[in-house]
Amino acid sequence: MRAHKEKQRRTVLIASLYMCSLFYFLFQGGKTALMLFVILNLLLIYLFLGRWSGITRVSGSRTFLNRGSHVHEGSITAGSTLEIGLQVKVPGFYPLPYIIVRDTLFRHDGESSVFETSFIPGWKRIGSVRYTTPPLRRGEYRFRRTECTASDIFGLLQHTGSFQSESVFSVLPQTVHLRNWSGFQRGIRGPYSHAAASRAAKETTQLDGIREYLHGDKLSRIHWNATAKTGHWKSKAFERESLPRTILILDRCLASYGKNGSDAFELAVSVAASLLEHGLKRDTAMGLLSIGERLTGMPPRSGLEQRNAMMKHLTFVHADAQQTLPLSLPLAESSLQPGCFALVVSGETGSGMLQTMEWIARRGITPCLLHIGTAGGNGEQDTAWKAMIRSRGWLLYDIRHLRELPEVLEGSGIA
Predict the structure, then answer these.
(1) What digits encode the pLDDT tens for the residues 112-136?
(2) What are phi and psi of 296, to 5 degrees?
(3) Could you tell me if 326 and 352 are in contact, meaning their C-beta atoms sit under 8 angstroms apart?
(4) Residue 167 and residue 144 in contact, taking contact as beta carbons nearer than 8 Å
(5) Torsion of CA 45, 48, 52, 57, to 10 degrees
(6) How confident is the model at residue 336 (pLDDT cuts 50, 70, 90)?
(7) H/E element holding 329?
């Protein structure tokens, strides 16, 4: 609308100048009036010829310039910036002093960002521009049509063209690498298992084959016969200890996350995504239970397809639950299978959280709480309900920042 008004204003200005020059020539006459009228007509011809400058037939392509990212695979992580390069070509011979390029990035929820830059075309009427986006939130993003605008040297008339160069990519939840969390082993044996069994056991003594040597493998693990035959270092592979089916329960009630609800919920999604990546790398059967306006339940499975399906859900999920977790969880009772290990990611506190953990345990499921906390807490009242959960032998981790997750999980286990 604003651009349309500006165009009308410029048209009125040019028409006014032309009428003034025409009247001056008709009523005043003389060489000066004729010269001004001729010059103005030549300028107007130059201005209107810009419509056939070739800008309406502009073409171009878009490339992602980020190094060390997965943009070529169609995804990056939340909080990352994206460097975009545009190659633009304008056919024809009409002189163009500069070209303005406007690129629009659309998010899946309708939010859009406009990036504007300019370049001076070379003698082949080809130019390139690059720009960097701000840190992106998780979701799906799409580039559609790129608009190019050419202006005359006076900046009076503008002519616009566009080219289609659609690009789609996803911004996945931010994750952190977990090296060696023993929570899955404790999920097998239930509460108080740390008093009777090693929490670091990962593999059995049953030989499962031969694999490539990994830096740090013990000398006793080297398979000398295979090493001698192939000329490359080989190690023995052992069967992994059977890990429990694990289900992630994500609390999507915004009210459960306190004052900074949006930021805390993003942290909860990142924690869930980090646990998912860690579990599936260890061939753990992982499932997901996410209750909001719609119930999303994925039974525990392992494999790349399961990982992609769960990460896709975590990419688009919103805190849209109308009820707190203690009220909404019974609606999904059929999605919870006895014998599972449940990882509850929530900001719920007090008796509500205690009620949730007890409800899960009564169904033959070992619960583990990853509580999304805030700095400060509620003093003694905040400590009391956590102490009651720990007294029942259930794991409880208090997470305030994503960078703390590895330290908290791989530390004492009762943070």
Answers:
(1) 999 999 999 888 889 999 999 999 9
(2) -115, 115
(3) yes
(4) no
(5) 160
(6) confident
(7) none
Backbone angles phi, psi at 180, to 5 degrees: -150, 85
Is the distance from CB of 351 to CB of 374 less than 8 angstroms?
A: no
DSSP codes of every residue in 242-285: PPPPEEEEEE--GGGG-TTHHHHHHHHHHHHHHHHHHHHHTT--
Rounded CA separation 71/82 (Å):
9
Least Cα distance to 382 among 342, 345, 407, 347 occurs for 347
Pairing of strands 366-372, 341-346: parallel
CA 395/CA 275 separation, integer angstroms: 15
Is the confidence at residue 195, as pLDDT, over 70? no
pTM of the predicted model, to two decimals?
Answer: 0.74
Give the separation between CA 161 and CA 86, rounded to whole angstroms: 15
Both tokens of 299, joined, read 């039974």
Q: Which two tokens stand for residue 269?
A: 């999604």
End-to-end CA distance of the chain: 56
Q: Which position has the higher pLDDT, 400 or 157?
A: 400
User: From the CB of residue 148, how many other CB atoms can be counted at a distance below 10 Å?
Assistant: 25
Spatial strand order of the sheet with 83-89 comes to 59-64, 83-89, 126-132
Average pLDDT over residues 274-285: 85
- Report long-range pairs for 293-298 (Cβ below 8 Å, ≥24 apart): 293/320, 293/321, 293/322, 295/331, 295/332, 295/335, 297/332, 297/335
pLDDT tens per residue, range 145-160: 999 998 877 777 778 8
| Exposure class string for 69-87: b at 16+ Cβ within 10 A, else e | bebeeebbbbebebebebe
One-letter identity of residue 113 = S
Beta strands 75-77 and 139-151, pairing class:
unpaired
